[in-house]
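I trust your eye. Have a critical look at both lines of this record:
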Amino acid sequence: MKSVAGKTVLVTGAAMGMGRLFVERAIAERARRVILWDVDEAALAATVAELEAGDHETRLTAYAIDVTDRPTVEATATEILGDAGPVDVLVNNAGIVRGNRYFWESDPARDTEATIAVNTLAPMHIARAFLPAMIEHSSEARLVNIASAAGLTPNPRMATYAASKWAVIGWSDSVRLELKQAGFDHVKVTTVCPYYVNTGMFDGAKSAPLLPILEPAEVVDESWKGMLDGEAFVVLPRTVMLNEALKGLLPVSVRDFIADRVIGVYHTMDDFTGRR
């Protein structure tokens, strides 16, 4: 895919942060239509108003929607498909993070269930609602799932978040293989696994000697390139892959020592506050 010019793009968590940057990138490439989903109705309205004031011909459509509400997701998807036709690029960007407490100290509803609902189940339900039309009607389509480096590297004080992203990675890459196996090569899946991103969601989280805090524009830029090229994974920074290599080469105790003392990841959530 050379660009999204003339295509329909849907972005979840689109009111701010990386979601808004994905929307702006689609507009810059002259997408025919961009559909914005976000649970924050006020922020979504403000974002759309600002973007519509720009000099472009892209049609913007906003939906204030809770992505964990599956009946609403399915009904809204049916409405969009009837009105706009198939979505060519779907960016599953919406997510939440809970941290700075050990798992046994966490709240089952606020922390565990909410995290799994938003980060794991929601992208599955959203993709399921739009994939059949992407398969049948789009000549070239993309599914982008924003996971996390936490889905590749275990980390204290964020067990549920890590679990939610591990699940997304396994699901996302399996769907990629299913599409390939079924002969639907025109639909590509890209799984994005960044380290902490400076959007406010990870306020208080620390960088590490080999793991700098990432800027949203950098992550969106690399994700967009990977999406257009149909890459299976975008992992940022590349240092994250070092731990993946260590998993298969070293005993767990040695791997833990390197991750903790050399890469420096095991205490990065000690002072986490998150977006207030």
Summary: The helical segments are 17-28, 41-52, 70-84, 108-137, 159-181, 216-229, 240-249, 252-263. The mean pLDDT is 94. The CA atoms of residues 77 and 129 lie 6 Å apart.
